[in-house]
UniProtKB/TrEMBL annotation:
Name of protein: NAD-P-binding protein
Keywords of this entry: Oxidoreductase
Taxonomic path: Eukaryota, Fungi, Dikarya, Basidiomycota, Agaricomycotina
Lineage top rank: taxon: Eukaryota
Keyword Endoplasmic reticulum: no
Length: 329
């Protein structure tokens, strides 16, 4: 865990630390609450048109009203229906966006599922891996041609793909392979720690996806598209509170300490928005391509498995095979 009062070079990020985003288009998934909400606020306040990609329209509209009441400083926020529990709808959401916009500068894949126990979907896939990895994979790859077009057509383009992961990826035993669809359905024991490990396994996938995506982009010559994975720190969000509340044998003291040693939602967004819109990232692309970042805005070393190029390629190919089998690719 990264403690809020631990020493580090940077302790916060403000709107003044970010580039001017006027004329830019952004998507943030899972953003009607929590870290995503604050991420939308930061980026919209720099002038971007931000799509709040979320499942519940009523909650999304309420969140947008709240953002407007808090002042967007000239930015704009629109709701985009995105249900990551449904792989097909995730594809449809991306296609709907492509009908609306001619460019996409920043994609922040923020949404995640934490709650256990987990179950298989009607497609025979583990629900947490669908939400945390597979749906984001199809959403991102469907949008990727537009991001490439943006990078090609705009000489000042600064295109970024940010995948929110978790330090929990370091809690799992060594992973030997991601070859074969069964690897996407891996679960650990039915316990609090088991759920955390299964969650961590899905967040390992986020880092590996980030690395393989960057490798493929560079192989195609897209040096001005940067992909970064971000661990936001220990943040008290609606999702984390529901998870803690769902575990009856987690003591009241543990729950209290979790809240005490957590960042606020705005502070939890610091590293995400730095990765998405800080000028340092464009100025030093070699430093930031495919890196893993922790609070606040620090490049860090992930687990050994998270740096394994073979695992990254296997994960991509397996995920691609799944969506092809389902007729979604």
């Amino acid at each position: 865990m990264v403690w809020p009062f631990s020493s580090r070079e940077r302790t916060s990020v403000s709107e003044d630390d970010l580039v001017d985003l006027r004329g830019k288009v952004v998507i943030v998934t899972g953003s009607n609450a929590g870290i995503g909400y604050s991420t939308v606020q930061f980026l919209a306040r720099k002038g971007a048109k931000v799509y709040m990609a979320a499942r519940n329209e009523e909650k999304g509209r309420e969140a947008i009203k709240q953002l407007e009441a808090e002042d967007l400083w000239g930015g704009k926020v629109e709701w985009l229906k995105l249900d990551l529990s449904d792989i097909r709808q995730s594809k449809e959401a991306a296609l709907e966006f492509l009908k609306k916009e001619k460019r996409l500068d920043i994609l922040v894949n923020n949404a995640a599922s934490v709650l256990g126990p987990y179950k298989e979907t009607s497609d025979g896939l583990l629900d947490i891996m669908v939400v945390n990895h597979i749906s984001h994979f199809i959403f991102t790859t469907t949008l990727l041609p537009l991001m490439k077009q943006t990078a090609k057509e705009d000489p000042k383009a600064d295109v970024r793909i940010i995948n929110i992961t978790s330090e929990a990826h370091q809690m799992i035993p060594p992973v030997t392979t991601f070859a074969g669809e069964e690897t996407l359905n891996k679960q650990y024991e039915e316990s609090f720690m088991g759920y955390l490990r299964t969650y961590g396994y899905s967040k390992l996938a986020n880092i590996l996806f980030t690395k393989e995506l960057q490798r493929r982009l560079l192989s195609e010559g897209f040096t001005n598209i940067i992909s970064i994975s971000v661990h936001p720190g220990s943040v008290t969000t609606p999702g984390s509170q529901r998870f803690m509340s769902s575990v009856p044998y987690v003591s009241w003291l543990t729950k209290a300490l979790s809240s005490w040693f957590s960042y606020s939602q705005r502070a939890g967004a610091y590293t995400s928005v730095f990765a998405a819109a800080a000028p340092e990232v464009k100025a030093e692309p070699e430093k930031y391509r495919a890196v893993y970042m922790i609070p606040v805005a620090k490049v860090a070393k992930p687990s050994k498995d998270a740096e394994d190029e073979r695992l990254a390629k296997e994960l991509w190919e397996t995920t691609e095979g799944v969506v092809r089998r389902l007729g979604i690719l």
